[in-house]
Amino acid sequence: MKTLEIIFWFSSFIVFYTYLGYGILLYLLVKIKEIYYKPLKKILPDDNELPEVTLFITAYNEEVVVDEKMRNSLKLNYPPEKLHIVWTTDGSNDATNERLSAWPQATVFFQPERQGKMAAMNRGMSFVKTSLVIFTDANTMVNAEAIRNIVLAFSNPKVGCVAGEKRIAVQTKDKASVGGEGFYWKYESTLKALDARLYSAVGAAGELFAIRRELFNEIERDTLLDDFVLSLRIAMQGYKIDYCSEAYAIESGSMNMKEEEKRKVRISAGGLQAIWRLKALLNPLRYGLLSFQYISHRVLRWSITPILLFALMPLNMVLLASGISPMLYGIILILQLLFYLMAAAGRKLSSRQIKTKILFIPYYFFFMNISVIKGIPYLWNYRGSGVWEKSKRV
Question: Given this model, what pLDDT does residue 179 score?
């Protein structure tokens, strides 16, 4: 029983540290650092000194959003002669290319064969000549000042990648697929900002991020999380990933939890794939603080923490039945049962549009961890084509 107690408390600590403890520790470390090192104020250069940039969009069958995306891109507050808009639309067999032909401001690279997003990105990047490349998705809308703020972040020569902020368009009434994802990204954005203030953000979201062109190296075609792997490989070269909350992309949430599950399981499988491909980053003797941030923020979430989370309940029951500290383990069991009851209530309400979304938090938390478990067979059965079915959005 002593061994079981040790396993139970170790598991409890890992779960707490992964989802709350690291955030608390990160906040304290940032506050201590900034007592001694004040962030330098950056000044954006005049328009005539701004660099040329490429807005790079990889799209497959996005006819529904092409016009809206182009209108959004042309409203960006950046000198138009210095903004190059590039679309790579390999394999698209709808009206995506026809719609783009009505926009002379866009340069389109197309080939009939669909080989997946990473292959399209690798091919399209061979045509890019500007020193900075800003990646964004076709179905996300970017704020007007995004590019100026991203360029400002690159004024630090140690910055090799800039991660923009992903925001979910949340309404007064939403389903769990939107409300839960919205809560998740608010918390995730806070952690990313703190990571960057301590040393470096841990990865970037594909909805909006930018890199120095010379740091781009082709990524394996079967990569599931291209944005994550690409950004961290740049960090492994000795550069930092800055986080820019003033540059954000707004995206609607998944249509329903079934669509959200497809997305989350694929991301979880991609996380496991990335852990293997970035295994050198697990060595703190080589990568120091970056390794600590990477393991704490990402690796634990995508590997052992979900397993330990779901092991807590049976371990708790065994310890309670053994008669060791019955009051303590009884209270802990009740708290766990309450959590699962709240998650069940959230699931029951998940398809309804409601104002009070508090129950979506335990449900979405439970759902995310289940998705990590489901990501294991997904990755095992993944054939590495780099092609997948995208989730439907609201």
Answer: 62
In terms of residues, how long is the chain?
A: 394
Which amino acid, residue 179?
A: G
Residue 369 backbone dihedrals phi, psi, to 5 degrees: -70, -35
Close Cβ partners of 300 (under 8 Å, ≥ 6 residues apart): 14, 17, 18
CA distances in angstroms from 136 to 22, 24, 58, 212, listed in the order given: 29, 31, 8, 15
Domain total for the chain? Answer: 1
Pick the more confident residue, 163 or 180: 163
Contacts of 215 (CB under 8 A, 6+ apart): 160, 161, 234, 237, 239
Position 388 pLDDT exceeds 60? no
CB neighbours of residue 119 within 10 Å: 25
- In contact, 253 and 393? CB cutoff 8 Å: yes
Range of the domain at 91: 47-296
At residue 178, the pLDDT reads 61
The three-class DSSP label of residue 383 is coil
Q: pTM for the complete prediction?
A: 0.90
Q: For residue 193, tell me if it sits in a domain.
A: yes
pLDDT at 57 over 70: yes
Q: CATH number of the domain at 55, please.
A: 3.90.550.10
Helix (H, G, I), strand (E, B) or coil at 259: helix
Residue 209 lies in a domain: yes
Q: Please report where in the chains the tokens 């002593």 appear, as a residue.
A: 2
CA 369 → CA 188, 272, 366, 392, distances in Å?
15, 13, 5, 21
Q: How far is residue 306 from each of residues 24, 189, 280, 375, 382, measured CA to CA in Å?
A: 20, 21, 23, 11, 21
pLDDT digits (tens, 9 = 90+) for 184-233: 888 999 999 999 999 999 999 999 999 999 999 999 999 999 999 999 99
Q: What token pair was written down for 58?
A: 């990889």
